[in-house]
Amino acid sequence: MTDAGVELFERLGAVEHVPLMKGASGTMLLELTGGKRIERWRIVVEKGEVAVARGNGPADCVLRADRTLFKRMASGRVNAFAAVLRGAVEVEGDPRLLVLFQRMLPGPRS
Amino acid sequence: MSDDLVKVLDGNTFVVSDDRGDIEASLTDPTGLFAYDTRFLSKWVLTLDGQRLNALSVDDLQYFETRFFLVPGTGTVYVDAKLSVIRQRSVANGFREDLTILNHAEKPVRLRVRLEADNDFADLFEVKDALKKKGRYTRTAERGALRIAYERKTYRRSTLISSSQRAKVDEHGLTFEIRIPAHGEWTTALDVVAEMPGFGGLEMRGRRRAMEANLDRWLAAAPRIECDWEPLRHTYRRSLVDLAALRFAPPITGGRSLPAAGLPWFMTMFGRDSIFTSLQALPFTPELAATTLTALGEWQGTRIDDFRDEDPGRILHELRYGELTAFEERPHSPYYGCADATPLYVVLLDEYERWTGDRRLVRELEFEARAALAWIDEYADLQGDGYVWYRRRNEETGLENQCWKDSWDSISYRDGRLPGFPRATCELQGYAYDAKMRGARLAREIWRDPDFADKLEREAADLKRRFNRDFWVEDDEYFALALDVEGRQVDALASNNGHLLWSGIVDKSKAKSVVRHLMGPRLFAGWGVRTLAEGEARFNPIGYHVGTVWPFDNSFIAWGLRRYGFKDEAATIAAGILDAAEFFDGRLPEAFGGYEREQTKYPVQYPTACSPQAWSTGTPLLLLRTMLGLEPLGDHLVVDPALPAGVGHLELLDIPGRWGRVDAFGRGRVEVDGRRGR
Fold first, then answer.
1. Which of A72, B75, B224, B308 is deepest in the core (most CB within 10 A)?
2. Residue range(s) defining the domain that contains residue A9
3. Which residue of A has its CA nearest to B154?
């Protein structure tokens, strides 16, 4: 795992209630490629509460990205939605979760 | 965009062709098949034995479907009228075209049918600004289909063209060598599919049958109108159908739809336009407001991002899906540079609850509404003086004017000088006031936070007091268009005064003077209120925001007039705008010329206006509300009609709301000068 990724996930894990829709629920699977093997993280959103853990499993939305790119996303240097539009990040499943996920990412100044 | 072009649309997918159904787009004109802000077909030309066809007629069957009747031959002399051709086209995941050729002769005929196809994959922004492409094109004929693809690094878009009948496919089109028996016909279905690999969730819109059922349901669910003024019935129906066409289900809303802004440039989610249109349509189709609130809430700003002019709590201005956005050459992923959508978000949330009684959504969006209210004080007050200001941080591709009058010259002093930045336009202060008042009601009644409610009301009262002092132009008794950075009044007289009435920020004692200006000869053109008053240095009756009449603007002015008890004046505006609608066959354009009605007799359409456009489409709906004086009060709907002369009776039946369904009736009584008798 990249430093920025770990940092981001620590932040997500630490925040009890990220500013998300109260009604938002769903599971997102992050697949980070470009290393020796694919690294998988599960982000579970339950009525606005966010939990993050390593691991595989069924998900409503799968996000696939190169770990270098993800590091840049996690540090706010790359905009997640633009990356999806140009095919640098692949999305499968419910794209609403992508919108919620990008809200958790920091801005370029932070 | 020229009106002899034929448009078929559904949400953000649309096809614009000539009256033969052919497409021959240049880089700078918005014809072709577009989806998600990208052109997917720029050339689509049908020939029979190498000959182009002539149009006999075009039937707009539905907004998403049209039929072209054609015959071979050139000019006015038909070479062979023994053949006719029907192209029936409907938008669906790209489009489908059923091509039928009828042989009227008594002997069989052999024909070479050719469809020439090409595409440039232009981003709508490139079409607007005529920019060059940076990627690589490929054309491949594969298994009876033609795929045209575009690639720039990881960005890929492609168009797949296939046929139900066997075709000879080459890199530039499809050819059919056919034989049609005497009095026989030949038909094929052509599918043009817009492909966006890698974005699996971006399901395009449904098939034709589903759309038809959907439109029927939409129309059946809306209130019915009864009145003795036939054009109003026609305009009403047209508005409902156009609003259905402009509905757009972005992939992030789980299939629910909100209004896109307008064809051809703005078939996407816009904060301001979606909110205003949802407000106009609330008494008719409240579900649009629910989706708008949810979708805009999901995209609410969470961080500081100068390129996108994003702040925490800010509601987006515009979301785009095209190539320039993808490569961050434009900031629309999304772009947040507007100063009104955020307070208006709270206004819509409150108005929505007043109509529907849907407390669940208000509770669900509590965080978003609080963040929007916080944005007003923490991020919009650039001068630290308690007003809403705007100044873009993205100096290159951001928007200079972040209010609805967003053209470069819209905010001026009487003498025509333009103020520097930041600017605090007057209507923004009105929206902020209204947002605080309405936020207070939600806090008290639904979020159970009376302290927050008290705080908001105190702030609102203070804002109102200061506003009525600082913006009031003493010598002429109206509100200045804006304050400049030194706190001086940007003193031109503009239609924004009407929005101030709507917001409620105007002191009762000042309302009469404001109304006198709105209905006076400098602002009122006979059809409606001009954006800028005649006599101001920058006034121009065909200037985009400096003299034209905007139907949407007028619908909110009429609402404002009702709010302050000026029923007859509201009816006068409703009559003028609805009369104008008659000249456009019930479809109001974005704007028309601010010429004196007596002088031109008919409204002159602004040259490049979008049509249909969402908030123009919503205008007749809001005018129906103001004419009937519909106002929710607790669990009841108050009806207090004031109809223009010429409308003897008006009934709106089955108005949905927290009361279930109720009917509203009105009888005519107001005399309007210069209105044609009927």
1. B308
2. 4-104
3. A87
